[in-house]
Amino acid sequence: MDQEKPLCQYKDPENYNCSCEANESGLCFWHDPSTDKKGPEIKQALEEYAKSGGLLRGISLKRANLKEIDLVNHNKKTGYDFSYADLYRADLEGAHLFNITFDHASLMKTDLRYANLNCASLQQANLLGVRWSHSKVENLRIGKKLRQEYLAHQALKEKNITQAHDYFEQAEEIYRDLRKHAEREGIFAMAGEFIQKELTMRRMQLPKFSTKRLTSKVIDLFCGYGEAPVRIIGISILIIICCAFIYAMTGLNYQGSIQTFDSSASLTDNFSLYLSCLYYSVVTFTTLGYGDFTPVGVSRTVAAVEAFTGSFTIALFVVVFVKKMTR
């Protein structure tokens, strides 16, 4: 009786198994990292393997010559799944990779010049050193965080500051490369997202309680590093509402009478007072200054701070909005 041929022992973290015949290493040709895949015949072999339904997840394609390969899953809603694959220094120049999945894959120093990556998924992939020049990246999905970000935050939890800073630096480099490429391709919405992440990664490398890091955080909160003008409107409304509450508590002078919250007054009267304070807060924030209400006591300090903040915030909104719209 013929001896049953052993199957590939590859099993990825999501419990996908390969059913191909194993070689001496216990892995099949595609999942064995020790097999040489640099030859020109590997391109056609991989295309045929993909079309035959072979397990593409976790395959090892280090330094493989895959120039202009067609890995589009034609007439199917989902593309080929190369999750956990190793494509370190693989040559994918001019490759057709529409709707492909590279989640958790290693694309370190992979050549993706002129490749079609529209609608591709690269979530949790290692994108350090990827060559993006002239590649198509519309609707590219890289997830909320890069792999290096997760590793950096994990290192912070373990109190390994040096390792965390190294991962943050790698993440900054990846976001910078993606941002520059998106700008060259004219995908400015994507470029805006990447520059926010790039500057966030740079901030995370600064000393925790330093002035530079605090300033960077404030800028991020106020306007998302110049990419979120709507955030300025939200903060402005919050400042106006908070200052109105302070005016209601500390009092305003209206026609010689001090207007302030009174616990013995009705809810309607106090609410009417708050609306008046809200009106004064808007006038102060926008520096209109009609003069029908005047601050007294502590309200003067609050009004001065609000007026200064309002002038600065309005100017900031104009700059950010114009930058966003003209780009």
UniProtKB/TrEMBL annotation:
Signal peptide location in the record? none
Highest taxon of the source? Bacteria
Establish whether keyword Transmembrane helix is in the entry: yes
| Keyword entries, A-Z | Membrane, Transmembrane, Transmembrane helix
Give the Potassium channel domain ranges: 239-326
Segments crossing the lipid bilayer: 232-250, 271-290, 302-322
Q: Which Pfam families has this protein been placed in? A: Ion_trans_2 (PF07885), Pentapeptide (PF00805)
Task: Locate the coiled-coil region(s) and give their ranges.
Answer: none
InterPro entries noted in UniProt: 5peptide_repeat, K_chnl_dom, Pentapeptide-BTB/POZ_domain
Kindly provide the name given to this protein in its UniProt entry.
Pentapeptide repeat-containing protein
- List the source organism: Thalassomonas actiniarum
